[in-house]
Design goal:
Blueprint (H helix, E strand, L loop, with lengths): L4 E3 L7 H8 L11 E7 L7 H7 L6 E7 L8 H4 L4 E4 L12 E3 L21 E8 L5 H7 L5 E6 L10 H9 L1 E5 L11 H7 L3 E5 L8 H4 L5 E3 L2 H12 L2 H31 L4 H4 L4 H5 L4 H11 L5
Parallel strand pairs: 1-2, 2-3, 3-4, 4-5, 6-7, 6-8, 8-9, 9-10
Helix pairs in contact: 4-8
Length: about 300
């Protein structure tokens, strides 16, 4: 019996990115004999639609794409009912589970399509477009005095004073570096892959004392700093050597194209052969090794609280 692809959410921000990854796969009638469920947010209790689905007729394989769980409120008793769980927002406390694979948050709709060419003109040395928050005061303080940048602060998510998505893409495309601070709760944000799609170098600051990007992106070529003041200093130094900066941009582009190709192959394995060893292998070795990092696990638990079983 053929499996089925089920979207239990009508609107999720990650949908354009996911559909792009699925675009060349035969999912019209399901992926092989597996049920593939796209689901957003397991919080206090799983939604009725998901519970109803799990009580229905079982196929040979069940795959859950769990999205938008930024506050890490997953429930293990739900995960155990799937052969494979694919989720964004890395959590080292799940690294020991053989049926959980992490993938990036991705980009929003405006950034879909081809990657911006490397020869696109660069107007700005750095840029940041986002909500003004207490947690970003140090970013603003550090970069307000660094010339050559573009800073657009808004009053909140989806506020009237934010730039249109196409305007943000244009700004990123004209930027050498794009600042990518943590989101509301977790390190991961859409900005990282949006910057890469736009041909810019993502700039991140360590989260919980770690280069948190490595758990999702592996050995990446981003600019990683200890603080935003440190990041501003590193960018200023990099700008003093245009030839080396251009080489950095070229290496970031080559790495990103290879990363996306690997991600697409991983998704193919997950959807078409969910019980294979290849499908269950972590996207990065760093995410698997995190299960032994007790200090990181403790830091995540202190920040997010214990997950519910």
């Amino acid at each position: 019996m053929a499996g089925q692809l089920v979207w239990l959410e009508n609107q999720v921000v990650e949908e354009p990115f996911l559909r792009n990854l699925f675009r060349d796969l035969p999912l019209q009638d399901g992926a092989g004999d597996a049920d593939v469920i796209i689901y957003s947010g397991i919080q206090r209790e799983p939604k009725t639609e998901l519970l109803d689905f799990l009580q229905g007729e079982a196929r040979s394989s069940r795959v859950l794409f769990h999205l938008s769980d930024e506050k890490l409120r997953h429930r293990n008793r739900i995960y155990s009912q799937f052969d494979l769980v694919v989720r964004n927002y890395f959590d080292p406390r799940l690294a020991w589970r053989k049926n959980v694979v992490f993938f990036p948050l991705g980009w929003t709709d405006a950034f879909g399509g081809d990657v911006v060419p490397l020869d696109a003109p660069k107007t700005y040395l750095w840029s940041f477009c986002g909500a003004e928050k207490v947690s970003r005061e140090k970013l603003v303080d550090a970069f307000s005095s660094l010339a050559g940048g573009f800073l657009h602060l808004t009053s909140g998510w989806n506020s009237d004073d934010q730039l249109a998505p196409t305007e943000v893409k244009n700004v990123y495309s004209e930027s050498t570096f794009v600042l990518c601070p943590a989101g509301n709760a977790h390190f991961d944000t859409f900005r990282i892959m949006e910057a890469l799609q736009a041909g810019a170098i993502p700039v991140v600051v360590k989260f919980l004392g770690r280069d948190f990007a490595k758990y999702t992106f592996g050995e990446h070529p981003f600019l990683v700093a200890n603080s935003w003041h440190d990041a501003a200093t590193l960018i200023q130094k990099a700008s003093a050597s245009p030839s080396q900066l251009q080489e950095w941009q070229v290496s970031v582009r080559a790495w990103y194209l290879a990363y996306v190709a690997g991600l697409e192959e991983k998704v193919r394995q997950i959807l078409l052969s969910p019980n294979s060893a290849e499908a269950k292998r972590p996207l990065t070795s760093q995410s698997q090794r995190a299960r032994f990092d007790l200090a990181l696990i403790l830091a995540v638990t202190q920040r997010f609280g214990r997950y519910r079983r």
